[in-house]
Amino acid sequence: MSQELEILRANAKIELDKLEAHATAREVAAKTIGKQALLWIFLLVLVGVGSSLALAPEALAPVIGLVATATMALIQMVTGIVTEAKKEEKPEITIIKELIARLDQKEPPMNVSVEGEKVIVSKGHDTITTTAR
């Protein structure tokens, strides 16, 4: 029975590793920071409390300021990773994707003819005529 349990655990670990292998960098970073951020915030608070006990009052303000700044920076990084909105695609990428999608479509050919000072451009049922001035 314990051998069956070990096999089940091994299979579950393999499936978990497969899922983690397909995770995006953002998901991996969020998971790692989520696991470790609380510990680092707690350690920074401990440094602040410990420094208030060990340092002279005139040296305490800069140390507490640095600890508070580091804690706020860490909290903002965690918040930024967890709540980051998806960025909009650049317009040129959207245009390129649209052009690639059009490659498969069959379109009527464009014809250009010049008759004296007249230029006639036709494509399908549309025709445009221009004259030189």
Break the fold down into its secondary structure elements and pairings:
Elements: H1 2-21, H2 25-54, H3 57-83, H4 91-102, E1 110-115, E2 118-123, E3 126-131
Antiparallel strand pairs: 1-2, 2-3
Helix pairs in contact: 2-3
Tags for this model:
single chain; 133 residues; alpha+beta; 3-stranded antiparallel beta sheet; 4 helices; 67% helix
Percent of residues in beta strands? 5-15%
The helical percent reads: 55-70%
The structural class is: alpha+beta
Oligomeric form = single chain
Alpha-carbon distance between the two ends: 94 Å
For the residues shown, what is the average pLDDT?
80
Rg, Cα atoms, Å: 32 Å
Low-confidence stretches: none
- Overall geometry: elongated
Order of helices and strands: HHHHEEE
Largest sheet: 3 strands, antiparallel
Number of strands: 3
Biggest sheet: strand arrangement: 1-2-3
Note the total helix count.
4
